[in-house]
Amino acid sequence: MKENSYSETMKASVMKRIKAKESFVLDLYVDMLVSEIQLNTRREKLMNRIDKAIDDRDKLLFLNLTKELNDLNKQFGT
């Protein structure tokens, strides 16, 4: 069995840490992307329901849905 030198061991350790950081950043990016897709989908569904409430002249439903949309926008800072 070959023993690694100190410098080889340190290089391997550094590379392992770099790969772990890259993996973390990629996971974070994927999570952000999924959240953005979910937010846009939810917003689009709300907008469609709001449009339907307007077409149906359902004022109460319209007010409830617009409040929900405003809350969603506040929650995500949009």
Automatic annotation (TrEMBL):
Pfam families, per the entry: IDEAL (PF08858)
Superkingdom of source: Bacteria
Positions of the IDEAL domain: 32-69
Protein's name according to its UniProt entry: IDEAL domain-containing protein
Organism: Mesobacillus subterraneus
